[in-house]
Amino acid sequence: MKSVPKFSGSRLQVRRLDGSLVAPGDAMVPGVYYVKGANGIWKKQMVLPR
What we know:
Blueprint: E1 13-16, E2 31-36, E3 42-47
Antiparallel strand pairs: 1-2, 2-3
């Protein structure tokens, strides 16, 4: 069984490349996401398959 990264959602906001929001607790499939940190800056983050 593989573990799947989950978005905890404490202070971060995560969106897919199409702009749709990733809800807290949703499993994140491999791909590229935009992550907004506590400082308000958006950055790209890659989720790799395990």
